[in-house]
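Service request form, structural biology core

Requester: graduate student, group of Dr. S.
Request type: structure prediction, single chain
Budget code: on file
Notes: please return the result as structure tokens.

Sequence provided:
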Amino acid sequence: MSAAPKAEANRISTLLNHAFGPNRFPVDVEQVARDYSKQISPESYITDIKPIPMDGFEGCLKAKPDRSKWMIAYNPDQGSQGRSRFTLGHELGHFVLHRNLQQTFECTERDLYDWDSPFRQMES
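Core staff response, request fulfilled:
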């Protein structure tokens, strides 16, 4: 069973507020992904975050075959640092909410427009 997205977002926001106060922006999403994933899943957490500049690629979350470690990859050439942070946060969201459902999450624009697909339902 996956967690409620709004509840998880509020939980992370509250943790950031307590740790860094109101001047916590911009959020270091890479550090949050590593630390928070290890906190909520000490046996299987995000260890690597890699920038991969590639046309048509936005980001993905992938586990090792034994699911002991996870990696986020993202395209640093998406237009702005804010957009890259959004992609990192989005992939962290997949980890927090859906890591028990599958081993690989790759979000493409095409996936978002296939309204009947199970992936689209997960994205919603």
